[in-house]
Amino acid sequence: MSNFNNFSDHARYDTRARLEEDYLSGPGQMTLVLLPGMDGTGSLFVPLLKALPDWVKPIVVSYPTDKPLDYKGHLELVMAALPVDQPFVVLGESFSGPLALMAAARHPNGLRGVILCATFVTWPLSIPACIARAAVSLGLFRLKSHPLFLQVLLGRNATQELRSLFSGALDRLKPDVLAARARAVMDEDCTAALAECHVPLLVMIADSDRIVARRCREVFNHIRPDAEVVHFSSPHLILQTSTCEAVKHICRFIRLVQ
């Protein structure tokens, strides 16, 4: 966790100041397992970690920065990180949404609920997967630090602090690792895992998302019509750009499933 302390204390207290006191206290401690987006470092959870109340105990899972893996390989890391002696909720952000569902489909002891954040169960982009596959093969992720790449994910109004945090996460990743994760998304269909997820489900949707197409939410509605769906007027990175609102929904959901 030492790498997650670059987000300023000022940002932490500013976010907490905007949270009602009711969210800062809870009926009992609950573990929240955080599965990161495609960067896999977990460092982008810093704003969320700074804002979470003390009664939520976070476990941040990270993936290798130098070893290409498919979803099966990532799932092994996720399962090894889950608590074995306490109740918990899993949050899967973007790339890790399918991993949260795959883990839930194995019905681990202690799992109380799943939160899906700006994610998908089938190919999420509006462009065909074959075109994306060709772009990846041509070296798309060598442009991972390009300003346009950052703008698509962060939006136009991201703070410099968040831009630096995101750029730092990408700088630690090899392009072939990102490419392997992109190919894993192209090849995966998690609709069966979604159907096998029998715990309460919270789906967090970014209305200004340029990564996950609108049609993806229809899959959640069709397979899990009982799932709670909340919308955010934010770009793809909900937890980093709408942190305060996200924490409120996360805390409320955790209380419901405790």
Provide a descriptive summary of the structure in words.
The longest helix is centred in the C-terminal third of the chain and has 15 residues, at 243-257. The protein has one domain: Rossmann fold (3-Layer(aba) Sandwich), CATH 3.40.50. Helix 4 (71-81) packs across helix 5 (97-105) and helix 6 (129-137) runs antiparallel to helix 9 (175-187). It has a six-stranded parallel β-sheet. The chain contains 13 helices and six strands. The model is unreliable at 1-13 and 142-146 (pLDDT under 50). The chain is 45% helix and 14% strand. Helix 3 (46-51) links the parallel strand 1 (30-35) and strand 2. It has helices at residues 9-17, 21-24, 46-51, 71-81, 97-105, 129-137, 147-154, 160-171, 175-187, 191-196, 215-223, 238-241, 243-257, and strands at 30-35, 56-60, 88-93, 111-117, 201-206, 228-232. By secondary structure, it is of the alpha/beta class. This is Alpha/beta fold hydrolase. GO terms for molecular function: hydrolase activity. Residues 70-224 form the Serine aminopeptidase S33 domain. InterPro entries: AB_hydrolase_fold, Hydrolase_4. Pfam families: Hydrolase_4.
Concise summary:
With 258 residues, the chain is an alpha/beta fold.
Give the helices and strands, then pairings:
Blueprint: H1 9-17, H2 21-24, E1 30-35, H3 46-51, E2 56-60, H4 71-81, E3 88-93, H5 97-105, E4 111-117, H6 129-137, H7 147-154, H8 160-171, H9 175-187, H10 191-196, E5 201-206, H11 215-223, E6 228-232, H12 238-241, H13 243-257
Parallel strand pairs: 1-2, 1-3, 3-4, 4-5, 5-6
Helix pairs in contact: 4-5, 6-9
